[in-house]
Amino acid sequence: MAARRGRLVLMTADTVGGVWHYAVELAAALGAHGVRVALATMGAPLTPLQREQIAGVPGATVHESTYILEWMPEPWRDVSSAGAWLLGLERKLRPDVVHLNQFAFGDLPFEAPKLVVAHSCVLSWWRAVHGAAAPREWSRYRSAVRRGLDGAALVVAPTRAMLHTLRENYAYERDGVVIPNGRSAQDYRPARKEPLILAAGRLWDCAKNLSALEAVAPELPWPVRVAGATSQPGGGVRVSRGVHALGELSSAALADELARAAIYALPARYEPFGLSVLEAALSGCALVLGDTGSLREVWGAAAMYVPPDDHEALREGLARLIADASLRSRLARAARARALGYTPERKAAAYRATYRALAEASRVVPVFAAEAGACAW
After folding, report:
1. How far apart are CA 22 and CA 68, in angstroms?
2. For residue 239, what are the contacts with CB-CB under 8 A and spacing of at least 6?
3. Cβ–Cβ contacts within 10 Å for residue 132, how many?
4. Range(s) of the domain holding residue 66
5. Chain center to CA of 74
6. CATH of the domain at 235
7. pTM to 2 decimal places
8. Torsion, CA 92, CA 94, CA 95, CA 96, rounded to 10
9. Does the pLDDT value for residue 275 go beyond 80?
């Protein structure tokens, strides 16, 4: 290990989804303990806001590309080129650990130990949204993910439920480590609550299932507001029905909306962890969530759950919370208390322990195996 230059992690991050926020927050928390992060980005050019975000992280550097991602249409030439680029970065930077937030690079011959983080995947998304296995056109994706999982020294997931899907969809039988995501409570604080229901997500995303909110919103006495992109991947704009579409908001603007909203609703069909839910809980919102294994794992008794495709149950659950201020307050307090345990510092401590275990080729114990004070990273 190169102790004189400090610890260095080469980390991949796509710029088109929640992995970007995960990577920036993790890099910042690691940097507070002297661990430098070299971010290798792909998917799309960094936006000005993203450049501003990473510029504020001590010890972090960015190595930018625009290679498309493994779940995008016809990605394989780019995936191959991105792999060669990553191997070149490793030779140049000589990291202590390679942290991969995409599956396909797990079978590359990196010299440093490598871990793969399973944030989500197409096959588990497809099964949750469509109720069946993904069609044959995803066979090459399935094979690439399986090779990446098998090639990794360690696989990490944000929930046990997500880890289980790897066994179901890719016959992945090795042990993995669960490291939940985190958010800083300083960035999300409750304000005076208003009679508002808020949701965040792309209106056209079948996994978020915000169309269920559109269906029930006209029958509710409170307005329903939805923050998120309305532009669809194939072109055009998804017109909102029955809800007030706020469009894409900055992190600060979304935090303001969450602070004022009394209820946060996400009747998701698929949500491997749910960063927006965590932000809502920190903001003091009562939670109404899709009844999925991962969301129940994260929130336990601190939320109300509804079957994602049962519009009547969603309407009744929201109407009950609107009418019962005591229940609303109790759920909001329980959600915030639970959310305060999902911190960037705790996430970073778990990753530091995991990195150290990989570097020492020792056994990794799942879920926050070591606190920061017990770890050399």
Report:
1. 19
2. 230
3. 8
4. 3-182+343-374
5. 24
6. 3.40.50.2000
7. 0.90
8. 170
9. yes
* In contact, 290 and 264? CB cutoff 8 Å: no
CA atoms within 13 A on the CB side of 339: 30
Strand partners, 12: 40
- Which residue, chain included where needed, has tokens 């960063």? 275
Instruction: Tell me how far apart the alpha carbons of residues 284 and 190 are, in angstroms, rounded to a whole number.
Output: 5
Contact 192, 171 (CB under 8 A): no
Burial class of 264 by CB neighbour count within 10 A (0 to 12, 13 to 18, 19+):
buried
Q: Are 331 and 303 spatial neighbours (Cβ–Cβ below 8 Å)?
A: yes
Ramachandran assignment for 122, one of left (phi > 0), alpha (psi -120 to 50 degrees), beta (any other): alpha
Contact 263, 285 (CB under 8 A): yes
Total domains present in the chain? 2
| H or E element, residue 48 | helix 48-55
Determine contact, residues 90/97, Cβ cutoff 8 Å: no
- Rounded Cα distance between 1 and 7, Å, is 8
pLDDT confidence bin for 355, thresholds 50/70/90: very high
